[in-house]
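Repro:
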Amino acid sequence: FIVIAAFLIMFGRRRDIVWTTSIPPVMQPFALRLASWLRGFTFVYFLQDIYPEIGLSLHMLKEGTFSRLLRTIDNWTLNHSDAIVTLSQDMAAVVRIRGSRPKRLVVINNFASITAQPKPKAARSGPA
């Protein structure tokens, strides 16, 4: 999928914006940013998870050369994106702590901590 998507961005019709998520991690955003950068397209990177940090915290990866390489590649993508969307202030903080400096960092929280209240019943109209 990554190769096909990058190919279509490189050789397909003009696009106003290229948007991708962090799934699959690191290489998809990198390849699509690189392709869109070469074509001069605006690029939005939607971080649903932050890699390799999530892999390290789940013990799927160990801190070492490979995780540092993934972080370096992802930082390049973050720093060369026109906008970064995260799901929380915590995620935005990780982006900043890493030393990444995206042009625009936006938080769109996907969790509502307020319990939904039932809608009030509509007032009856007409004679009583």
